Amino acid sequence: MMKKVEKQIQGSQETTYMMITMKRNLPEKSYDRDTNSGRIIKPYLILLIFLSVTINVFAQNKSGYTWIVGFNGSFAKFDGTSSAPSKGQLFNTSHPNSPFMYQIAHSNICDSITGEIVLSTTGMILYNAQGDIIENGDSLQPEKAYLHNPLPLLPVTQGSIIIPKGTYGQYYVFIPTVSDSLYNLLWTNVNGYKAPFDLLRYNIVDMNLNGGAGKVVVKNKVLLKDIELSKVMMQACKHSNGKDWWLLKHALNDNIIYRFLVTKDSIFGPFTQSFPQPKWGYGDVYGQSAFSKNGKKYAAVMGSGSKLFLADFDRCSGELINPNIFNIPIDSTTHSYWDGMGVLDSVSTGVCFSPNDNFLYIDKMFNIYQYEINQPDSNLAWYHVKHGFDTTQAAFEDYGQLYRAPNNRIYIGKVGGSLTQFSVIDYPNSKGAACGFCRKCFRIDNAQGGLTAPPNMPDYDLGPELGVTCWPLGEPEIIKVNTDLKVYPNPASTMLYIKTNSKEKRMLYNAIGQLLYETDANEMYISGYTKGLYYIKVGSAVSKIVVE
C-alpha cells in the first residue's frame, strides 16, 4: 500500500521501452518556467542569437537533398536554392537487385554534408548507395506480408521512415506492417473489408560497417504490437532541442495517435493521445500526415473520410493541442465512368504545408485544394487548385501524396507509377491561382518503370526552437545539483525513499518531463510504473532514478 498519497496525476501509465543517460549541469534559478508546457524561456544575448542564426545558415543539413522518386531508382537532386532539381537514374536494369520497387512506401536519407544518398528502403528491403542489399537488410516484413505481392513492394503511403541515430552513419528505420497471425485472420478473407496493420517495428543500420556498405545491427525490433494501426500516416518531427525526434503513428478507425521520443541512445514510448474526431474508417490504403515547416502544426488526412485533422504541435512534449476538424470539399471526378455512376471524389490521398506555413494543400484522387489556415471564413479559406486530370483520362494515374521540397515547391506524387512525370505547385506560399499549379512539370522521360512518389522524409534541416529549453531534454539539459536530495534505492522496483529537508512536493516525472505523481510523503510506491528512466523533483533539486 502506498502511504499518504496526496495526489495521483492522470495518464501516468506511459510505456517506456528503453533508457537514456543525459548530462545536466546548469542551475535552474536563472530561467523563467512556463509551468503549463514544461518549457524554460531563456534570455539569449543578441550576440548568441546572431551566432545561432549564422551557424544554421552556413551548416545546412543536406540529409533530404536527394529524393528517390521512381520505381527503379529515378532521383531528383536539390541544391538548397529555389532552382529546379537535377535528375537522373540511380540504378539500371542490369543491376543484380533490379527492379528495386520504390512504390509510395519508400524512404531514403542522404549524407548530411554532401547530399548524396546513403541509405534507402522500399519498406521491404534496405539498400546502400550502390543499390546493393545491406547485410541483414532483407525481409523487413513478416513472411506473409513480404510474399503478399508477386514482387517485394509495399504499396502504402508513408510505409517507412529513416531518422538519424545521432552518431554519424547510424540510422533508425521505422516500418509498420502486419503480423502473420493477423494476416491469416483478416487479410486472406477476400470478403473482408478490414485489413489493418498491427505492428510497428524498427531497425538500426550502421553504414560505417563493411567498408561503408553498411549492416543492419538491430533488426525488426517491435515498438507496437497487437494494436490496429492505419497503413498510412507515419511522420516525424525534430524535438524542440533540435537533436532528438518525435515519431507519430496513427491507429485505425479511432483517431488515436501513438508517439515516440527517438534519441541517439534510446526510444521512449508509446505515449498516446486520443481525439473524438475524426473517425477515419477503413480506407487506409491512402492518406498522409505532415508537419509544418516550423514544426509547430500537424495535419492528417486519410481515405474516404473527407476530413482534415489540424492541430498545434508542442515540440517539447510531443503533444497535439487545439485540434480542429475541417470538411474537405467534395467534387466530381471528371472521370466519365465514375461521374456517369454518380460517384464523387471523396478519397483523400495527401496533405502538405506551404513553406510559410500559411496554407495547406490537400489532394484527392481527382482534385487538389488549397486551405488558408488562418482564414476564419470557410467560404474564403478553400481554393480549388486543380479539378480533374493533369493529362488525358486514359493516362491519368490519380493524385497521391504531397511533399515540400528543399526548393520550396510542392511535388505531387501518384497512386499509379508507369508514367514519367509529376505535376508541381511552384509558388505554394501564394494564395489562390498564384500558387502556380504546373502540369507535368517535373519529368524524367527515360525513368525505368516510371515515377511513383517522393520519399517519406521528415524535415532533417529543422533546427532547435531559439529561446526555448524543454525540461528535462533541453540543450543544455537542466538539473540543479543539490546534495540535500537523496533518493534510494536506485534502481528500484517497488518503493522509493526520499531524504530531503525541503517542504516542497515530491514529484515524479517520466523520461520526457511529464508529471505523473506528487506527494508530501517521503515514500513513493512505484511498482505500477513501467520499467525505465524517471525523475524525482523536490523544489529545484532533481534526482534521476531507474525503475526496474
Label this structure with key terms:
548 residues; mainly beta; Immunoglobulin-like; Methylamine Dehydrogenase, Chain H; 5 helices; 6% helix; disordered N terminus
Can you walk me through this structure?
Helices cover 6% and strands 39% of the residues. The chain is mainly beta and 548 residues long.
Short note summarizing the structure:
The protein is mostly beta strands. Helix content is 6%, strand content 39%.
CATH topology of the largest domain: Methylamine Dehydrogenase, Chain H
The structure class reads mainly beta
Q: Can you tell me the residue ranges where pLDDT is under 50 for at least 5 consecutive residues?
A: 1-58, 475-479
Largest sheet: 7 strands, antiparallel
Shape: globular
The radius of gyration is: 24 Å
User: Looking across the biggest beta sheet, what order are the strands in?
Assistant: 10-11-12-13-14-15-16
The residue fraction in helices comes out at: under 10%
What is the distance, rounded to the nearest whole angstrom, between the alpha carbons of the first and last residues? 19 Å
CATH architecture call of the largest domain = 7 Propeller
Report the CATH C-level class of the largest domain: Mainly Beta
> Taking all residues together, what is the mean pLDDT?
85
Q: What number of domains? A: 2
Specify the number of helices.
5
Strand content: 35-45%
Number of strands: 38
